[in-house]
């Protein structure tokens, strides 16, 4: 199956928002074994969208359109695709109830122009959108399938996971199945990774092995084609085993298991809790942890200790150390981790202090210098100096991820009996 993605919205062409939907949809389709061959961005213009659709029909089996399903006149994806297919739009009772229910849940009457969001192309089917007012839809024509999705990522992403990918898997059918396994790694760069697995990357293409660099980490996608699901996984298994043998210390999760999910899974399994003390990351670590449903079972809270006064008054950091060594130092990170664990009654404490930039760096303490400490109430504290590259946002993200990975390694070290140096 050949797929392509059409993102609709003049705001994308103007650079006012980033086209994150195309990246997300491509990633999800790749995990399902579907190849995406083209990305197109087109403005809110009927004629140009018709032209893009004409091109897509000639080269793709699956066309996914993102955006342009709102209630205003410039939201024209639904109407333009209907015109392109030569089919009328019909009011879909279930879609109308969904839109009305959304406004009812807000305690408001539905504006009349929102009725257009309940219009479905003749012969099409609705895709539920419980998080917004614009249901999606899909329709088949001339052996091709067209999927229409709303633009806001908070609505589109769960719709893709919950509805679109299961549909695509049923459409693929046939005698061949495609399965993918994603290994998630932290603590090794893409170039070093490629050196370690050069022979595997050059091996025959079933299963295929593809590295992908993310923000501060790397993923490896293993994809196999076979006559059955069982055979596909059997093809993947030896390659995955060899990768784990070579790279096991860096592999923290698989498929959708992010660092925060992996850490949360282990904490919950052991009945342990964690608290965070953040300076340069400004609460980003706590946000990442609490993005995981059920994180209240193991995350007790955090302190954003941006000022030295808060570090001293709330976390018990020594004023003498702050004055002598400065806030960005190993002892301060340790005392932050110890203080937050004790103050909030957590098994683990994480302390992060550093210089995110772009200002504030010196020759001895440059921008990107970060100290991360992990403390357990029954063990010695661990601390490490990092020198992150990138802008302010990148330094903060990389620091938060490094903290999560440090905790993940420490949790594993408890069982593995590693020495302090190995941890």
From TrEMBL:
Q: Which InterPro entries match?
A: CinA, CinA-like_C, CinA_C, CinA_KH, Competence-induced_CinA, MoaB/Mog-like_dom_sf, MoaB/Mog_dom
Q: Which SMART domains match?
A: MoCF_biosynth
CDD domains assigned: cinA
State the SUPFAM superfamilies in the record.
CinA-like (SSF142433), Molybdenum cofactor biosynthesis proteins (SSF53218)
Q: Which residues form the MoaB/Mog domain?
A: 4-170
Coiled-coil zones: none
* Family (UniProt): Belongs to the CinA family.
Q: What name is this protein filed under?
A: Putative competence-damage inducible protein
Upper classification of the organism: Bacteria, Bacillati, Bacillota, Bacilli, Bacillales
What is this protein's gene name?
Answer: cinA
